[in-house]
Write a structure and sequence with these properties.
256 residues; mainly alpha; 2 domains; elongated; DNA repair protein
Length: 256
Amino acid sequence: MTPLMITLLVIAGIVILIAIGYMNHVVENNKLEKARAQIELNDRLRRCGEITETFPGQLMTPQLKLLLTRLELNVNQRMLHLNKSSATIKARIAELETLVGQGESIPVNNPPGPIQTEAKAKDVRFLLEALHGQVTRAAQDGFLPTNEAKHWIREIRHLLVLLHIEFFNNLGQHALQQAQPGQARLAFERGVQYLRKQPEPAAYSQHLQLLEKQLARANSMVLTNSQQTAEEVNELTEGLKADDADAEWKKKVIYD
């Protein structure tokens, strides 16, 4: 075997080793990318499910329910590409396709969840933020057309305003029931200020009028209570003065 052949064999061996290493690298990268994709899709599925199941019924509309179902269907279809033999995913896709086929007649079974505490309001706001993220990602993936994505971004902002309206109104009503007009006035006042700061306050004119009426009512109760308190204080003061005068008269009678 000539030196040239030996050199060629060595070079060929090196090339083969490099090729094997490259192929292993590609395979490992593909496995890593598949694992990352599955983690991401599972997270998106979890978020879609959380919004669908826990969103308050008074804010959930058939249109929103349909959107969430479509988003979940899209994610499941993407997962099926990674797990082509998964019977569970195939069955879920069939269920979702049936629901999507109903259009805006899709059933909405979410029970109402009154927004009566700040903690509850934060929970719903987090759901809206998660929905915003899902819509944005679906648009980036090309699943949602740009115009439709923009529509839903506006709708999410609208739902956020409705959330605040319900929260401030419920907070004020609860304070009135507890005979705390001062706290009620504060809640209604916060609601009025929030609506007046909206980019399109005219869209919420009826809600604003209602909150302003509630604010005026609470303010009137606070003023009435203040007047009653002042009268009670005056009566008490006059009573004490009378007691003092009576005590002075008795002292004079005793010592005279």
